[in-house]
Amino acid sequence: MDKLDDIKEKVERTNKHSFFTFLVFLAISTAAWFLVKLSETYVTQTSYRLLLVEAPADKWVSSEGQSVKMSLNTDGFHTLRYKMIREPNRVVTIPLDEVPFRLENGNTYSFSSQYVAERLAESLGISATDITMNDAKVYFTMDALKSKVVPVVLQADIKTVRQYDLYGIPVLDPSSVTIFGPQEVIDSIKVVKTELLSKANVSQNFSETMPLDLLGGQIKSNVKEVKVDVQVEKYTEMDIEVPIKVSGNVRVRFFPETMSVKCLVAVRDYASITPEHFSVAVDKQQMEAMQPLLDVRLASWPPTVQILRTHPDKVEYLIVQ
Question: pTM (2 decimals)?
Fold first, then answer.
């Protein structure tokens, strides 16, 4: 029995080894067959949807969703790669600012379909000569957009270090832009904002280039960004007495005769700021109504000065005959 068991065990080992050898050769043969097949050249008819972008600022592409037909003449490896692309994802993007298109008539334009072949070849990793376009030209339509000039408004969150602050209003270049879009959208827009300019711990002048917020593509502009110049200065407190006056032929004495203004001024301007740079407004209607107290307010001051507080907000008066 022992000898019989030994013989059976040897036969089983031999069979297993033979089967394993068969599987190895089968795998090698299959791989070789696939390599031969994938090395062959195949012709595949297909179509790709066009996505036309970067149209001129004053126009929009009205012929959306069009497709172009072509033949792919390439090896099996690249054909397999193409087959793995789902149909909804078979899109060729053509930037019109990189393609020389021409006006055919009316609002119809065209460009050579070779540009589509080059773009597609680049994405598939093949030569443009492996793609045969069905048509020599691609035709599309563009319609004119409405235009409007609007000011640019800076969106900013600028935090300075202690005792420093912005000096005046940031300067934008350009300060206004021409926007383009559908009539109903253009009519509702009064300004174009920048993207948010965010900075912290600022203590000196700086410049930034900020993109415009074009509402997610709802509007277009031939200007995509603006330069922002921001001046920063060290500030200090200043107390100043501003005379209370009233215009006209009536002579009036006020009690008190001045308004006390506490403000922040840039250190570089401290010596040059005088009461003449400020003015106080009096409520004349209250005076005409012979009310005993008149409301007063600070009416104007230099744009680089920051007002902290004023006193008083009411005054007594005496009309001098």
Answer: 0.66
